[in-house]
What does this fold into?
Amino acid sequence: MIYASIKVCLKIRGPILCKATATSAWGIDATFAIDYTGRPVIERSHIKGKLREALRELGVDPNNIITWLGKEEDRETGMLEITDFYSNCRPEHDAYEKRLTRTRMDRKRGVVEETALVFMENRFPLRSEPYEWEGTITFFAEDEDTGQAGEIHDAVKAGLKWIAAFGSEKSVGLGRLKSVKTELNCEAVNIPAPFPAPLSAEKWFTVTIKPSEPLLIGGVKRKSSTYMESETIIHGGMIKGALAETLNQICGAKKYTDAPPIDDVHNSAVKEKYPNLAKHFSDIRFTHAFPSKYPEQRPVVIPYSAVSSRGDCRDAALCKEPKPINGSAPIFQVDWKDKDYPGGFGWPSLRRISRTRTAIDEELRRAEENRMFTYGYVCPKDEDGVDVVWVGWVKLPDVDTGALQSELEDAIRRVTRLGKRRSRVEIKIKPQMCGSAQTERQPIENGLIIVALQSDALMADPDELLKKQTADKLKKLYEAYWSEVFGSNTVELVRFFAHQRLLGGYLGRRMAGGYYPFYLTGAGSVFVLKADKALECVNKWKNNGLPVPAWAKKKYGNGKGEDLWQRCPFVPQNGYGEVAVNLNWHFKERIDVAGGGQ
It folds into this structure.
């Protein structure tokens, strides 16, 4: 396999206007699109749409277009990765200094129509020389002998040359394309054979993900809305899926988007190059990656036992009965305002941006009906402009990890795309776990075990809860789960602070009518337990996550939990069921500590 890169330079005559989806200047109706750093940009979606249209008009095989750019109606990705395009030329004027105007005429009266005057930003005005916009198109291709990379390069170059103009207001001469320059570079994908032995065998690793573009990770689009907002956490299953896709790409698996699972016996392409990684892939545990300003520190989910009142935040996990804080009733997290959230848990305030996408009718040259969506992205910077990375952990299974470790370290560094937007990222991995924003005490403190979920977990059986939806019934279901986890009836659930979520809507399209949402106990839920001889169990949870209950194995799997991940994504290997035990916060900030309850 080879990794091919096409450097593209578009020379576009001014004026040019690629409209932003939000105004950035008062009195301007149409402003130029800018990225999260403030640079003018021609977004990849526009380049991709124009290229697809041009290839169709040139009579390129439709199957090739689908392979290269993906299925448009299903929003599937193709093998070509297109970046945003930027100009090296700084705008000569700001939005107020130079403007373009357009108006619409009343055909009957022959005068200007009312409310039809538009002010447009003219960042790139008419001049003698065109503006250069540069971007890159990358893809994995077969060996150079097959000529696949050259064929794709020629088709892309011809398609770009066929495009007459870019941006908005093309019918009045804006954004005229003068010329296209491309350069193809091919680099062989070198996979070591054999892999070098690691300096030291490790079980735990820290993974840091540094995006160079805004991320769209997770998120749910409501039926009554066209808006989808990104989550802030990169789920372990997403990292694992990106790694699986990369392995299929670099190993030459045919139709890598539909390739068998990495550890499937039929996926010989990956098995040949990464034998140990392929064998143990489904057993490797990837935790969720949390955003952090410090690569050496991973945030901790704020526990639901935390309460606030008048700016003072305390913890109620160890309180036997309700108590006021400074004479006021405590407020739980579900009712908090921004000022109520405590510091010390390591969470940055991420900057967010929104982008609107719409499909274009190729015949009418206008936006299609009911095909406009707005997406909310998270930026790799906080609100103060400080860089943010995402920090997670990887746990190898209990096998001889030497060769497996070497293969994992080599493969995960090759992952360069992540999320629904397929944003560019750089992933680094190093042995051992980094520190957490909150420290933990001994696993058992004064006979108590305080478990704080760091990710969602399958715990309570929803079928049983439907029979009787009461607080007492929910407590009994949680008691049954903890008894199963401990393997005895000696555990006592003293109290709990929990919330629940229904997840998995994105799986509905795959189930052909057989879909039912998954009932999860949410991250941040706190369980105060009293149990004897529990040290071994607690250490096992911390290493492997909370185990999947028997009812879930029976309902979603074959009763034993084997290959459960293929039917239920919320398993420990995908980062779910992660716990923190006896956080120092619970003891240090308890309500009845001096200055707390009164």
Q: What stands out?
A: The radius of gyration is 28 Å.
